[in-house]
Specification:
Strand content: under 5%
Largest sheet: 2 strands, antiparallel
Number of domains: 1
Order of helices and strands: HHHHHHEEHHHHH
Radius of gyration: 21 Å
Number of strands: 2
Shape: globular
Helix content: 55-70%
């Protein structure tokens, strides 16, 4: 069991490192470190695909477990690619580069540092957060025979190949999260298009407070968290899947405290219209907005 887990982890990690190195080389050539943002979802897709490929026996449970991050990763990659490509380097990375140059670091040195801090750093996070996938994909055949007919024979041994109630609940939670993220992203993209010609004061710039954004200031981040908690629940069907609970916890922390909600609202919170939005709308978990006094 431990050997299979290490095989999944090591093979997926090597593929991720190779792809990140190639992506970094492209980012240096085009001077756009924000290409890593587009790769974020695709990296989880790669991990799941590698683990599924390595599975000696592919059962409905393993297909389900692999499909969840693959579908999510594909949607997010296409969405971010369409949104970001052709618009230059994201201002976050531009500010980082300018600060580094002001402190005496050459742009070449800064981009080389990015390989280890930004690109490999995100690769490390990908591998940690995807632990439910590479652990459960390695242990999904429990070796326990079940009388419901969902059995498979491997090397003369009978294994249960079915999907239990916990996996079904996890898949449903993942679906709820997927809809929140996809619909939230679509509503945000439409809002941005509708207001792209706004040229008034930044303090009174319109705020998206319709649709899912009426109930949460970050419904897409909430949906993302739900998906990874759902994937963890599916992983709990396999031995030691429960031990990867650190993965959805870490993803939720990133979405709320590190690179998600709190970071985004550092700038948005200075606007009067957004301050009013904060006063009436939940920061993460959807709930009815507060009524004006």
């Amino acid at each position: 069991m431990l050997t299979d887990i290490l095989v999944n982890f090591s093979h997926a990690a090597v593929v991720i490192i190779v792809l990140l190195t190639a992506l970094w080389a492209i980012s240096v050539a085009v001077k756009d470190a924000s290409l890593i943002d587009i790769f974020w979802g695709f990296g989880f897709l790669v991990v799941a695909a590698v683990c599924l490929y390595l599975a000696h026996v592919k059962t409905p449970y393993l297909y389900l477990l692999a499909a969840l991050p693959i579908i999510w990763g594909l949607r997010l990659t296409l969405y971010l690619g369409r949104r970001n490509l052709g618009h230059g380097e994201d201002k976050r990375y531009t500010r980082m580069r300018r600060r580094a140059v002001q402190n005496g670091m050459s742009e070449t040195a800064w981009r080389l540092r990015n390989l280890f801090t930004i690109f490999y750093g995100q690769g490390l996070v990908m591998m940690i957060v995807s632990a439910p996938v590479w652990v459960a994909m390695a242990t999904g055949l429990t070796g326990v025979e079940n009388n419901n007919g969902s059995n498979i024979v491997v090397d003369g041994e009978r294994y249960w190949a079915g999907i239990d109630l916990l996996s079904i609940l996890g898949a449903l939670l993942w679906l709820i999260g997927f809809l929140f993220e996809a619909i939230g992203d679509w509503q945000l993209a439409r809002f941005i298009r509708q207001n792209k010609n706004y040229d008034g004061p930044i303090e009174t710039k319109p705020v998206l407070d319709k649709g899912l954004w009426k109930y949460s200031r970050h419904p897409n981040y909430f949906g993302n968290a739900c998906m990874w908690w759902g994937i963890w629940l599916v992983a709990c069907q396999a031995p030691w899947g429960w031990a990867t609970i650190f993965a959805p916890i870490l993803m939720t922390i990133f979405l709320t405290k590190i690179s998600g909600r709190d970071l985004l609202e550092q700038d948005l919170g200075r606007r009067k219209t957004y301050q009013a939005y904060i006063g009436r709308t939940s920061s993460f978990i959807p709930r009815p907005p507060k009524r004006s006094a």
